[in-house]
Amino acid sequence: MSITYTPWPGSFAKKYRERGYWTDRPLLDLIENAPQENIAVICGERSLSYQNLCSQSKRLAVYFQDLGLCTGDTALVQLPNVAEFYVVFFALIRLGVAPVNALFSHNKNELTAYAKQIEPKIIIASNEHALFHDSAFFSTLSVSSKELPHVLLVGKSEWAESLENVLSSSTSTLLTALPSKAHDVAFFQLSGGSTGTPKLIPRTHNDYFFSVRRSTEICHFTAATKYLCALPCAHNFPMSSPGAFGVFHVGGCVVMSPSPDPNTCFELIERYRVTVAALVPPALTLWLQAAQLNKAALSSLQLMQVGGAKLSESLARQVPIVLGCQLQQILGMAEGLVNYTRLDDDFETIVTTQGRPMCSLDEVKIINNAGEDVAAGEIGELITRGPYTIRGYYKAPDHNAKVFDSEGFYHSGDLVRRNDNGYLTVVGRDKDQINRGGEKIAAEEIENLLLKHEQIMHSALVSMPDSMMGEKSCAFIVPKAAGHGMKSIMLRKYLRGLGVADYKVPDRFEFIDSLPLTPVGKPNKVVLREEIRQRLQSNSELDKTL
Ligand code: AMP
Ligand code: DBH
To answer: What residues does the AMP-binding enzyme C-terminal domain cover (predicted)?
Structure first.
């Protein structure tokens, strides 16, 4: 049985095939068609050739097959930046088992929400994550009435099977399973979301493979590319824009970094002569500072890709001077559409825009509140459909009815301006989300958790400006009773106790008597954002006078 998703209408699918965008090949080709002797992944002191990656993922697929996993099943995966991430991904792909790849920063709250939606047959995680130090969390995961899933852990474990054991044990079983069909769901991407429940994004082999292939052309990736994977490897950006998958497609090499911290990364860049890196703006700021002292380490770096959140023009301008390499801006979304500045664009375009769509069949409209197209240079909401942009989230009919229109356009909630050359500049957002330096927080998710607190009557989460992160989060809290005695520290502890990922815990709490409301009675977040901006400003002016 294949996994359900909202398909592209037949006429669109036909067009995408006729253009050669959809090739009806499985993502497995990414590693199987590469020159097998080339090094695919460097991770710590280990180097894996494409042949290693293929054979290890095949061995693991046999193990999955023996467990009874088959096409149409799902897996919940949570791994840090290690080579095993790719071994596991391609092992699952071999059998047509579709993973959700949770971020390593995700916690009980997020993993439970994903497990509920996909009812995984297997969980593959790392003993480095506190949730998997023992079986306590796992045993809470009794998804529906079904049996608990299998568990496989990277690293030694006393309570679960270890991946290393599986890979080092021999088997005589033949792998008979096949990948799912190219027009079926290969895996799920994660949406930053704007609703109470994290949404899953079904990506097919056809659409994802195209986005990877086209990205490698735009970014000129070749077998000589050495790509530093410093952002969380499960994120759409380092996975596919062109990311590790783009590197695999051309037979290049991915160097895994445990974090984007400049000390760690500079050492890896110098040691392995890395040519391309991808960062979110806050990490870029740290690199620009560190490079003032150690530019020599970066001599091999040719391209710095920046995306995930708005990059300021002033930081953008520093990249070639301070890092000694070219800048590329990327406006992407796990739902599909990815915009790139091109390598041969003039410098002004590269520093003032977030690029243009990657192919001519990406349909992008910029619309006003009445749904009409705005003129070039005017601000409006970016809506899009195309050969690698989904037509619906997984099992979310109500939300889909809101964000996908009758013509299949995805309403991104991004406010942008398009210039005469088709380049987009992000100017704001019309969705209830905070973009904390590239990490997205759905306001409603946190508000709902806060509302479960016995002393809280109302809550509203809004963004506040931050010089390093671009935005941070501020929760306005209306207590049920005066003299409540609630403190920020208590609410942070409360949210952590519910197992919320750290980056979603509000950076600041403000206690107020009532929420300002819009004419229709919703919390007026425009007023709240302005309120916190003013409070921060008067605090910093106070600081200056002290
Ligand atoms: P997600 O849908 O969770 O994958 O997040 C994608 C969103 O991240 C986009 O819709 C934008 O809001 C934001 N984003 C990604 N890249 C950029 C960028 N270069 N500049 C500004 N916002 C960005
Ligand atoms: O933020 C994103 O989701 C993103 C940014 C850059 C993305 O999905 C991508 C490139 O592919």
So the answer is: 445-522
- 214-232: string of b/e by CB count within 10 Å (b at 16+)? bbbebbebeeebbbbbbbb
**Residue 273 covered by a domain:** yes
- Side by side, the strands of the sheet bearing 424-429 are 363-367, 379-385, 410-418, 424-429
Say if residue 315 is in the same domain as residue 426: yes
Best of 208, 231, 237, 440 for a ligand 2 pocket test (most atoms within 8 Å of beta carbon): 237
CATH of the domain at 312: 3.40.50.12780
- What letter represents residue 341's amino acid? T
The domain in which residue 404 lies consists of 205-431
- C-beta of 333 in contact with ligand 2 (< 6 A): yes
Residue nearest to atom 6 of ligand 2 (CA): 332
Q: Quick one: 333 and 384 in the same domain?
A: yes
Residues in contact with ligand 1 by the CB-under-6-Å rule are 191-192, 236, 307-310, 329-335, 354, 412, 414, 426, 429, 435, 440
The CATH number that applies at residue 469 is 3.30.300.30
- Number of structural domains found in the chain: 2
Average pLDDT, consecutive stretches of 10 residues, N- to C-terminus, the chain (546 residues): 95 98 98 98 98 98 96 97 98 98 97 95 97 93 70 95 96 93 98 91 98 98 98 98 98 98 98 98 98 95 98 98 98 98 98 98 97 97 98 97 98 98 97 97 97 97 96 97 91 97 98 95 96 90 59
Which secondary structure element, helix H or strand E, spans residue 418, and what is its range? strand 410-418
Q: How far is the CA of 90 from the centre of ligand 2 (A)?
A: 21
pTM of the model: 0.97
Residue 315 lies in a domain: yes
